[in-house]
Structure formats: structure tokens, C-alpha cells
Request: fold
Amino acid sequence: MEKVRIDKWLWSIRIFKSRTLATDACKGGKVKIDGESVKPSYMLAKGEEVTVKKDGFNFVYKAVDLIEKRVGAPLAVVCYEDVTPEEELNKYKAWFENSSKISEVRERGTGRPTKKERREIEKFKE
Reply:
């Protein structure tokens, strides 16, 4: 196989959870090759660099192997090379680590907040 559709490839290497999400990302201009947005039907060749804007981060992947069918994660990792710039990876890691630490804790046994308490909490958050 010399070429494969970009939406199929992004789905099969597990960048997107579904092919529909991959297609929508292409249609929305979030998938670029050589700085230009591509359609979902774009035929990807080996060695091309794909830039994907996902969750506000720009990830860059190099196509090492072309597959059309979705495979397990260990097999999918072999099909691409992650060439995302270091600063972008650091930004993503910082966001990922901070998002898991932020949680609201309420003392055990106090129950749900009353309407008045909830309004005070919302006012405090703003």
C-alpha cells in the first residue's frame, strides 16, 4: 500500500477515537500537511509530516507506515514517529498534570451544598 486516506490513518493509529472525529478535524482545518489544510480524502504517503491541532495543542507526526485498519496501541505506535516540538510537549504535559490535581473536596458527612452555599461557591469561583 503506497497511499492511504488521511482520516483513516489518523483513526487507525489512534490519534482520534473515531473516524468521524478524524474526518471532522480534517474538514475543520485542524489537520495540515506542509502548512496547508487537507480534506479527509487526502492520500497520505510515507514520510509526510502531519500536523494535528487537538485540544488547543499542535501535535506533529511523521508517517512511518501506512495502515487502514485500527490496530492495538502497541502496533499503532510503530506506524508513526512523534516529532512534536519539545515546548509543545512540555505545555501539554503541564496541562495534563495540572488538570488531574484540581478537584473540589468537601468534608465528609456535610452532604450536598444548600442553594445558598452553592451560590457562594459560584460567586467565589468567579
User: Anything to note?
Assistant: Residues 3-100 form a domain with the Structural Genomics Hypothetical 15.5 Kd Protein In mrcA-pckA Intergenic Region; Chain A fold (CATH 3.10.290.10).
